[in-house]
Amino acid sequence: MTVETLVFEDKQTLVDTAARRFVDLVTTAQRERGSASVVLTGGSNGIAILAALAADSGDIDWSKVDIYWGDDRFVPAADPERNHGQAVDALLSKVPVEPARVHPMAPSDGDFGDDIGAAADAYAAVLAEAGDGTSPAFDLHLLGMGGEGHINSLFPHTPATAETTKTVVAVEDSPKPPPRRITLTLPVVNRSASVWFLVAGADKAQAVAAAHAGAAAADWPCAGAHGTTETVWFLDRSAASDLPD
Ligand SMILES: O=C1O[C@H](COP(=O)(O)O)[C@@H](O)[C@H](O)[C@H]1O
Predict the structure, then answer these.
(1) C-beta separation of 168 from 124 below 8 A
(2) Which helix (H) or strand (E) holds 67?
(3) NCBIfam families from the entry (predicted)?
(4) What is the DSSP letter of 90?
(5) Distances from the Cα of 217 to the Cα of 53, 76, 147, 213, 241, angstroms
């Protein structure tokens, strides 16, 4: 497993480079195995890469991409905070995805109503069906990161971050609003071949440095995420500013 840390002059260069590499990864998987599976994330860079792909996604066959989410807010479907809705606006409404291959987490006004536990269990069932009873080994899991090191909705010193058995859990008291979320857990993230962090801004520098120094996942959840083939940190200069030279 390789760990690569790439530092870019600015956020747009970071996003554009990650988008080009996304095209390479997905088209390679499609050439070798017929399809690709990717886990999307929310946040500023997670959505910016989707906008870049909407502008140019090279030879990706979008009808042969299985699309999942690392986390989402358990709010009504039309709430602008939904990672799913943002991804639809930025990319999925603009490319010919196969609807049956797009797997959003349930909103709070969806099939499970306000029952967040049932919604999380249903997503675990989706993963189990696609992944031989557990979860798929995704080709790519994109991750944004908060200043305190959260990834998906895995926050420091929380049961969700400590989870070792369940693939999907409900979070009822997220420190970052909105409080109710559904998230994949670290064991699922870590079954992905490629795990890519998309991180910009000086407020993220301490967490980036902690992860690179091998911090505990309980303290800095980002430190617990690794791909089975590669882990890539796409950073702008500010996010990299606490790393040793
Ligand atoms: O809460 C969340 O935030 C992170 C990072 O967001 P950013 O705007 O600081 O880049 C995101 O990756 C995650 O999916 C989301 O739920």
Answers:
(1) yes
(2) strand 65-69
(3) pgl
(4) I
(5) 31, 31, 14, 12, 21
The residue whose CA has the least distance to atom 2 of ligand 1 is 43
User: How far is the centre of ligand 1, averaged over its atoms, from the C-alpha of 146 (Å)?
Assistant: 6
CB distance 43 to ligand 1 below 6 Å: yes
* Cβ–ligand 1 contact at 45 (below 6 Å): yes
Residue closest by Cα to atom 7 of ligand 1? 43
User: pLDDT tens digits for 121-162?
Assistant: 999 999 999 998 999 999 999 999 999 999 999 999 999 999
Find out whether 196 and 234 touch, Cβ atoms under 8 Å. Answer: yes
12 lines ligand 1 (CB under 6 A): no
46 CA from centroid of ligand 1 (Å): 8
Q: Which domains does the chain have, with CATH numbers?
A: 2-227 (3.40.50.1360)
> Residue 232 in contact with residue 6, Cβ under 8 Å?
yes
Token duo for residue 3: 């760990």
Write down the ipTM of this complex. Answer: 0.94
Q: Is 46 touching ligand 1 by the criterion CB < 6 Å?
A: yes
